[in-house]
Amino acid sequence: SAPILGTNLREAKDYMTRETTTFKQVEQTEHYSTNERELDSSDPNDQVTSTSDSTTNSESVDTFAANSFAHTDGETQPHVGEEVGKEGYCTMLQEAPGFPIKYNGTAYDKEKQNLTQCGQFFDDKVCCTRFQTESLMQKSSVFFDGMFHCPDCYTNFLRFWCEFTCSPNQATFLKINKSLNYLGKDYAEQVVFTIDQKMAKGVFDSCANVKQGLVSGETIFDVFFGVKTSYSEFYERLGASSSSLGGVRIFFDVAGEHTPENTSKPLFFPTGNCQDTCSCNDCPAACPKAPPEIPPSNHYIFGKIKYLQFFSAIGFFLFCLLTVGVTAHCVYFTNKSARANGYAKITEDSSSSHDEADDNNHVNGSINDAVENGHTDTNGYEDISPTKEAVTTNFLGGIFRRLGWVVGRFPILVIFCSIIIVGILAIGIPRIVIETHPEQLWVPPNSLAAQQKSYFDDHFGPFYRIEQLIITSKKADGSLKRLLEGNAGKRNLLAILDIQNKITKITAEKTTSNGTRTVTYEDVCFKPVAGKGCLIQSALGYWQSDRLKLTEDTDYISQLLACAKNPFNPLHNCLNSIGIPDMPNVIFGGFEGKEFGNATAIIVTFLVTNHVTDEENEDAALWEQELLNLLESKPLHPYGFDVAFSTQRSLQDELSRETSTDIVTVVISYAIMFLYVAVALGSIRSPFGVHTKFLLGLWGVLMVLMALVMALGVAGFAGIHATLIISEVIPFLVLAIGVDNIFILVETFQSTDSSLSPQDRMAATMEKVGTSITMASMSEALAFLLGILTRMPAVVAFSMYSSLAILFDYLLQITCFCAMMAIDARRTSANRIDCVPCIRLKAEESWQSRETLKAKEEAGIIRSVFHRFYAPFILHPVVKFVAVILFVGLFVMCVNIVGNGVPQGLEQQIALPQDSYLQDYFDEQADLFKVGAPIYWVIKEPYNYSAIALQNKLCALGAGVDGCKAGSLRNKLGAEALIPDRSYLSGAISSWLDTYIEWLHATRTCCRQYKNTAEFEFCPPEETDSSLCEPCIDPSELNKLEIRLGRPPPQKFYDLFPIFLRSTCTAACALCGEGFQGDTTYFDASGNNLTMPLNKSGLGLNVTIGATRFMGYHTTLRDQNEFIAALKSARKISDTLKETLNIEIFPYSVFYIFFEQYLYINRVTLMCLGLALAAVFVVTLLLMGNVAMSVMVTLMMAMIEVDIIAIVSLWGVHLNAVSVVNLVMAIGISVEFCVHIANSFMSQVGTRQSRAHKALVDMGSAVFKGITITKFLGVVVLAFANSDIFRVYYFRMYFMIVIVGATHGLLFW
């Protein structure tokens, strides 16, 4: 009789054909000829005739066997006779292999039949023999095994077939519609089985969602019959498959659908509801209700207007009213005062004040005269004289004056000492360690993800290294069916297998101190099953990656599709060479639903053992490099295949290459800035070459490099790891800050009286701007230094290096650079040519007087524009009003943008070079993959797995009293998998515990031992002589619960566990444990971790099961938002399980450690920016001594940051570690735009208008000339970089830092 194992009707048809080939084709007659000899199946001349209720025909049995399957494709249902059988009577009986015979007699006594199966459903009488029931269970064992973990389904379906086979009232619902007469006996060939509609639906519904195996996502009915939801279609397919009675064609007649009323009594029995005993994975009705999705907070008012938008609009409106009022008030009193005092124009007063202030203060650089003489307001503005904050300025000015004089007096000594110090600190540079591991860069060492990864690695080993090929066709229709059909089909499949086998033969040469050693794939591959080979996930695993098997398979497409539908199918021998199933959603891509034949990609994955350290992974890295060399040669291209590929080392290699690909761009960017600085510092007036500042500009740039060397050296001595971001960002940052200070120092120096000695001029310069430079530099250094409080390693390293570099750059500028300025002043006074100071021009060639030189030095083009045009325009009342309204409006708009959320993440493609082979791989991965990354649910030790109460918290084998909890680990995760758009979980999890309990059960053939042996000796499932074996656990030892499935006693649980882990899946037992060997750990009485015990000795006594894991999969995650949401969801589910089940559990997936930063990156960003702003406030307050001005500076910085964040987020920049570093850097650069102007304003005397005019001309022009133009020129070059990360995260962000900072500092400020 045919087992219920066929995955399609073809298999059942083939079986029927085989069963009937023993009969010779003869003409069918209505009566059997009595002179025929007895049936001898071995004699080819045996003849039979067929008796039928229909007319005589001449079709052969072979032909009938084929046609009997036509019903599913539309064959007309045979007419059901009107005669109704009586209760207590049978219809047919079977005592030997073959077709059952007609039997219209009364039912047999059950006790006389000595039934081993089905007897539990009947009281006294049965219509079957022991042979029938044993044949039923034997031939359908695998099918019933699939239902075993859902007791109600198992019981319903078993009883359904037991009623069909053994019911004492068989005649009431079963009628033979066609028979075969042979040797005087009528054999049933077609039967009509009348069943009650409610019962039929109940049986189907209880099993409709039961999965084939504990980890398969396919239902049993779908795997074996291709039926998903239609119960009527199921019974048609079931009858057509001739599933249980040796080829008898069954027509199911569901009462009320095909059977005329009162012509038969349908079979009926009450069916169990799957939700009472089945797991969530097998019965959605048993799933615990998922918590309702929490709707987003109601941030809306008046329907669609958000609260933030509403109150921002109200606030902005009130601010506009206030601004209009204040402006009107000022204009009114200004005009009134002007009329009363003959005041003409504010700008004229500002200009005269500016000239007067220059004459009075150029030499001393002090405001003491103004303090002594006082100042009277005559134009309607309040007269502002220096107050107590000037005390701090004067005190610091005196210190810097003395410093400037010393530096100007002994420049050579200062430069020499500086170079010596730089050289000493440079010794620490070789000690620097470049950190490239992402988990060491972006995850704090004590973060939850780091702790969980460490625990996972310690107990189960690091997640394996992945080498993956995505194979697609270059043709338009590249589905598997199209690729594999025809003459070229098998050739294509063999080509893929050949490349797969070629990869396994790759070797690499490793040079060691002992010579050269060959590294093979066997040396590095991942071997999950002890004593077996490497794990390769591939469709070729359906032939065990054996070329001969594939070559000899004439129906390879059916094999491929059958195994894809059921990877555990023992009839097709689908398990790979090491006995592990290749899941179709892992090895195929580009299909919808379960249509694996429409897949457009074959995915081949080679798994390699991973280790913690780079040294341990060196062999694997060498082998991966040889693999890359092979794949880059496009070995499958001649066969019409494209291959996108990746290895474990690929990402790190390509990221390193990305840095080198844009070196030229970065160098050009810096060169342009250097050139501009050298040119802009000097003058091209006659005599040419004397008044240029190329050497001085070059020296200023050299100061930046020396500061970097000093910072690197100190960091090397301190053991602070460096990152690639430091090399890309910090030079740009220090140059931006340093250049501004250089311009301020040079322009202030040039504005002093050139008749004075260089040391006096330097003293005056430092007295005037030393405080401003110090305030800016200290604010920046402290702002960056506070970033170490974030604990994110990359940010901490950036903060340390930036703070040190800015501090050293500041120290070098006020010493070494000032010394060079003094030397350059002596060169200019001596008429020596720049860059060639050994050449001195004659005195008469310098025809200008000192007064003329002074006037020309002061009258730079940019300064003149600021003085004559820009400052008067900006300070006009109408312009000020419009500027305030526009900038505050922009700020309000940006607050709303930021308040709505800034996108997070860093797409891998952006970080890679555009020409990287990984670009294609990631694109194909996002488009084609149908399953996401594996997720492990880790149970920490200690946990007593032998205790039934604790098993019930994890398992899913039944529910109810004393059964697995409805909210158990597997049931909860099964329920979450039903809402993948919220949980990001896909399918059921793999449970070693559920599988083990089923494997142990006494009614199965999986766990048996030989009888009458002194010690335990395992009896494999392949042992067909059942008299030699007995169950591992006597049924009386099982702890009987309310559910059918019992549990073993504790010591038996531990004794048999090592046997289970070594068991292999076979056709006789589809359950095995070898695939779970890596999912459990062990520890002894002292708490020491142990490797897997290969025998039962001591397990449970001296050795206990420790940490374990249950594996599942995420859904396909296609963008950064989904990766982040998947991590959040897993953490939330874990927290719920921890709380409700009181177990120590956590989720782990390989990508969690990279995305955990996004769970708190908003907080880190706010902390970094908040600390930086606080540092700016504190330093400006200490150095300026004015609370109001310090608050204004801080608020200006905050406005700049908010505007930058909002604008760049609209420009495609996401919030990640790179952008956070750039935002912190923006604080440092923005300080330069505002602090110098603010300090200059506070140092002036006169009206607010005149002081603003003077500050804007003096410092605003230097800021524009220095940092704005310099940075703009350097940033524009980055727009032409080869990699997206430079264009997106450096060009766009730096560009907006310059634009937003400059407009706020020079216009709004």
Give a quick rundown of the structure.
With 1309 residues, the chain is α+β, with helices and mostly antiparallel strands. The chain is built from 49 helices and 27 strands. The longest helix is centred in the middle third of the chain and has 37 residues, at 793-829.
Structure description:
The protein is α+β, with helices and mostly antiparallel strands. Helix content is 51%, strand content 10%. It is built from 49 helices and 27 strands. Strands 19, 20, 24, 25, 26 and 27 form a six-stranded antiparallel sheet that branches. Strands 10, 13, 14, 15 and 16 form a five-stranded antiparallel sheet that branches. Strands 5-6-7 form a three-stranded mixed sheet. Strand 11 and strand 12 form a beta hairpin. Helix 15 packs across helix 30, helix 29 runs parallel beside helix 47 and helix 45 runs antiparallel to helix 46. The longest helix has 37 residues. It is elongated. The N terminus is likely disordered.
Based on CA inertia axes, which overall geometry fits? elongated
Strand content: 5-15%
E-strand count: 27
The total count of helices amounts to 49
Query: What would the average pLDDT be, to the nearest integer?
Result: 77
Distance between the amino and carboxyl termini? 92 Å
Class per helix and strand makeup = alpha+beta
Cα-atom Rg, whole angstroms? Answer: 43 Å
Largest sheet: 6 strands, antiparallel
Q: Which parts are unreliable, with pLDDT below 50 for 5 consecutive residues or more?
A: 1-84, 343-388, 844-859
Helical content, roughly?
40-55%
